[in-house]
Each structure stands twice: as structure tokens, then as C-alpha cells.
Amino acid sequence: MQLLKNFLSISVSLFLPCAHLIADEDSGTFKSIDSTAPILTSDLNEKLIRAIIKGDSIAVQDLIIAGANVNTNVPSDLKDVYDEDKHQTALMLAARHGNTNIMKALITAGANVNSIYGPWRTTALTSAAKQDHADIVELLIAAGANIESTDLFGATALINAASGKACELHRDTTIRAIKALIAAGANVNATDLIGGTALMEAAKHNNVHTVKALIAAGANMDAIDNSGKTALDWADNYQSFDAYRILRNLKNHQD
User: Is 123 in contact with 115 (CB distance < 8 Å)?
Assistant: First the structure.
């Protein structure tokens, strides 16, 4: 199929030198557009957003070449799109969906890795960290993403990585993401608006391997939130028995 697309691309460019090629996401083929005809940027941007959601990296590259804005936002009134995919930039959307090839294409084309957008003040790094997409976390760090940027709740990417409810299901990628953030200089004891830390969030969600990784990196077990609660208290309050046992044992050994 890819060979056929390449052949069509070459054939059209040979016989229609003034033609413009963009991907047709519905048919999976190329469409030839007269370069003298106006192309609505808004149409290209919507196609870009839908291609990102579908995970179609070839269409994304074609649309970028055709002039789509890599820093476009997902329209709040866009139909047939989940609410979770709205209020984001194209790069945030790609980060959330975990498509590394699309991320690379957008960044190469000039997407702003530090853009903050939407009611939750999300960044691409926050989205990737929350979803346990370690490859994308590493990619964004290499591209210059601000690791200490905070969301609406004051949480850093590290706190978001530690708070993911699916952490234990994706243990290896979660630990990779956390270690990448720490290696890049993330503050393991950073606090959000309620004084919560990454360790407290990991304890809350019973993410025991995350708890161990954070403590090994220097997370303060004695840190307290705005209510005077420690990570051990969080584990107790949320009945996170495994995390509670680990923290209790470490606390006893520390004492």
C-alpha cells in the first residue's frame, strides 16, 4: 500500500507539476489540489487534528507539508471527538495518544514544546507523563520541554507521572518516565497547590514501584502537605496497603 502511495505521489508530480498533494484521511489516498486554488488553513488544521487522533503519521506529514499549523488547537466544537481530546494543542494531543512518530514530525516542523493551553493549563510533557508514555517524555525532554512547568493544580510532570492510576499496569514505562524526569533535574520534592508531592501521589494510588523509585531518588518521606499529612498518611487514608507497608517499614528503619 505504501509503495502504491509513493508511486501515485511521483506520478502526479510528474504530470501535474502545479499540483499540491495532501492526504485524504477518508479514502487513504492522495488528493491533487491545484496550487493556484486557495486552501483553507482551518480545513487543513482540522484534518491534522483528526489524523493525530487516528494515529496516521503519514497523513500528518502530508498535511504539514500542505501548510497545516503544527501549533493549532483542538476546536472545542469539533464533532465526533472525545471530550478528553479537546482543549489541547496538536502536540499535546499527540503526546496524550502516545504516537512517537507524529510527535517527532510536529516538533521537527516547529511545534512549541512548552505551550500551555486549556482550562487545566496542560503541556505536552504533562500529558505524556500522565499517560505513562516514557518514549515521549524522553523525546520532549530532549527537545527542551520545561520539566518544572505546572498545571492548574500546581502539579509538575513528575507529580503527574506518579499519580497515574494505571502506573502499576505500565510499571516499566512509568519508572522510565520518572527516571528520565529526575535525570533531567526534576525536583522530587516539588509540591502542588495542596502541598502534595510525587511520593504522596504514588502512595495514594498504591504505586509501590514508583514509591521505591522516588525514595531512591531522594524523596522526603517526612514532607507534609497543607493539612499536615505525610506520604504514609496518604497511603493510610486511601487504603493503599502495599504502599503503606513499604513506607512504614522504611520509616521504622529510618527511626
Answer: yes
Alpha helices in the chain (DSSP H): 2-15, 41-54, 57-66, 90-97, 100-108, 124-130, 134-142, 157-163, 171-183, 198-204, 208-216, 231-237, 241-254
Say if residues 62 and 94 touch (Cβ distance below 8 Å): no
Query: What cell was used for 146?
Result: 520545561
Strand 19-24 to strand 29-34: parallel, antiparallel, or no bridges (unpaired)? antiparallel
Residues in the chain: 255
Amino acid letter, residue 110 = G
pLDDT tens per residue across span 117-149? 878 898 999 999 998 899 999 999 999 999 999
pTM value?
Answer: 0.81
Count CB neighbours of 64 within 10 A.
21
Q: Give residue 19's pLDDT.
A: 40
Count Cβ atoms below 10 Å from residue 77 Cβ, excluding itself: 7
